[in-house]
Specification:
The chain has 8 helices and 4 strands, in the order βαααβββααααα. The chain is globular and about 55 Å long. By secondary structure, it is an alpha+beta fold.
Length: 166
């Protein structure tokens, strides 16, 4: 599934003077980065990753952004069958050796897909802290769950509060 979003940053621009406009932008950037790279094959897969998302129809999903402070209604894009077919072919060819016909086809397809996505789905990289918070929210994780990965409770807190760099 791919997503088509008309212009959520138009809404964001109307929030320029709003006190948490920066946090909202970061949360949206984190969501866009994840959604752009996602490959969901069913609504069940989507719900596994985003438990709080609401599937409202066959072509509409509502995502909670920034702790359900905002809701983002997203249309599922089914208008790029060539892109999806190319992605399926890449999956089939993945691991082919360089210099073989399959390896050469994989290289060409990867280049074409990259050019298509850069033109049709350009997205800036999200803020790393907001991406971590986003993942925590949607997977029901707590700060304690980060301790084995990052270190002490204090270190996790400092990192999430931007008092310590990643």
């Amino acid at each position: 599934m791919r997503f088509a979003i008309s212009n959520p940053f138009k809404f964001l621009a109307t929030r320029t003077a709003h006190k948490d406009q920066g946090a909202l932008r970061s949360a949206l950037d984190a969501w866009f980065h994840e959604a752009q790279n996602a490959e969901w094959h069913s609504s069940a897969e989507l719900k596994e990753l985003y438990a709080t998302a609401s599937i409202v129809s066959a072509d509409r999903v509502v995502f909670n952004i920034k702790g359900n402070s905002y809701r983002l209604v997203v249309a599922i894009d089914r208008s790029a069958p060539d892109h999806r077919a190319a992605m399926a072919e890449v999956k089939r060819l993945w691991g082919s050796k360089n210099g073989t016909p399959d390896g050469d086809r994989l290289d060409v397809l990867a280049t074409l897909i990259d050019a298509y996505e850069a033109q049709h789905e350009p997205i800036d990289r999200p803020d790393p802290i907001e991406a971590i918070r986003f993942r925590m929210e949607h997977q029901g994780l707590t700060r304690k769950d980060l301790e084995p990965l990052i270190g002490t409770r204090t270190r996790v807190s400092e990192m999430l509060n931007r008092k310590r760099t990643l």
